[in-house]
Amino acid sequence: MKTVSIKTVATEAGVSIATVSNVINRPAVVSVATRDRVQAVIDALGYVPNSAARHLSSGRSTAVGLVLFGVRNPYFADIARGAEDTLQRAGHLSVLCSTDLDTRREEDYLDQLAHQGIRNLIITPVQVSEPWLDRLKERGFTFVLIHNWADHPEICSVAVDDVLGGEQAATHLLARGHQAITFVTGPMSMRSPRDRYEGCLRAILRSGRTREDLQVIEVDDFTIEQGRRAGERLLAATRPGTAVFCANDLLALGVVQAAFRAGRRVPEDLAIIGFDDIESVNTTAVPLTTVRVEGYQLGRAAAQMLLDEQRDPEGHTHRRQVFSLRLIERSST
C-alpha cells in the first residue's frame, strides 16, 4: 500500500500543509469547519502522521516521560497505568522512569529524556523547590506534578489530602481505645509523610492527648523490608504501644510480618493501619485497614492535564486537583 503524504492530504482538503499540521498537533488554533474538513480527508485517505519525522523537524518528541518514585510499589504502578492508558488513547508513547527516591537518578533521567527530545513529563518529584522548577522550565519541559504542595498555582498538579488521611487513621485508632500511636514512615524530608504525620497529630491533640502520645519511627524507604525493620525496633521497645499508623501499605505489611515473627497478634496485641489500599492488602492473612488512594485516577487526571495543555497551550489554565480519601476498615484494627 502506498503511503499517503501530508501534502496529499493538504491538496485534497484544499488547505496548506501547515494547516494539516496544526489540525494534527494544535487543533485548537484551527477553525472547527476547517478542522472537520481536514479530519475527514485524513480518515478517508488513511493518513498516518509520521511522528519520527515530526520529532526530527521540531526537536521535540510526542512521547511522555513518566518519572515516578518506583513502580515496585503497586500504588505508583497504578498511577503509571492510569496515565499510560489515557496517553495511549491519545496516540502518545509513555516512557517509564523509576527514580527510587534518588535525586541524582531523577536528574539523570531528566537529562536523558531531554536528550531524546522528550519534554512532556508527569513526575513525582523527590523534592520540590523553586530552583528545581525553574530548571525544568528552562529545559523546555511541559509537566504535571504528582505531589501535595499548593505553593505553585502556576503549575498543573494532582494530589491527595494527606493531612486528612492521617487524621482519619488516627481518629479510627483512638476511637478503638488506643492511648498512643506510633507513626512508621520513610524519609520525613518528603512532604506527603510530613502531612500524614500532621493529620495524625491533629487528631491526637483534638482528643485531649499530647504530642508525646505520637511517636515516630523513620526508616530509609517505603518498602516491606524497611517496614519489618521498623516493626522490630517498635517491638524491642520497653513499652511498644498498641497502635501503628504507617505512611504506606508496604511499610504496614512489613510491620505485620515483624509482629508475627515476634509472636504478637494483629490486631489483639498490635493494631496496624496502612495508606494507599494497594490490591494485595485485602488478600493477606490479616487484611489491612488502610486509607484508600485512587492511584489510577490520579494518573488519568495528570495525563489529561498534560494533554489539555498540549492541545491549547495559549488558552490552558493551570490547576491543582485534590482527590478525596476514604478509610477502609479491615481485620488489622
UniProtKB/TrEMBL annotation:
<dbReference type="Pfam" id="PF13377">
    <property type="entry name" value="Peripla_BP_3"/>
</dbReference>
<dbReference type="InterPro" id="IPR046335">
    <property type="entry name" value="LacI/GalR-like_sensor"/>
</dbReference>
<keyword id="KW-0805">Transcription regulation</keyword>
<dbReference type="InterPro" id="IPR000843">
    <property type="entry name" value="HTH_LacI"/>
</dbReference>
<dbReference type="InterPro" id="IPR028082">
    <property type="entry name" value="Peripla_BP_I"/>
</dbReference>
<keyword id="KW-0804">Transcription</keyword>
<keyword id="KW-0238">DNA-binding</keyword>
<dbReference type="GO" id="GO:0003677">
    <property type="term" value="F:DNA binding"/>
</dbReference>
<dbReference type="InterPro" id="IPR010982">
    <property type="entry name" value="Lambda_DNA-bd_dom_sf"/>
</dbReference>
<dbReference type="Pfam" id="PF00356">
    <property type="entry name" value="LacI"/>
</dbReference>
<protein>
    <submittedName>
        <fullName>LacI family DNA-binding transcriptional regulator</fullName>
    </submittedName>
</protein>
<feature type="domain" description="HTH lacI-type">
    <location>
        <begin position="4"/>
        <end position="58"/>
    </location>
</feature>
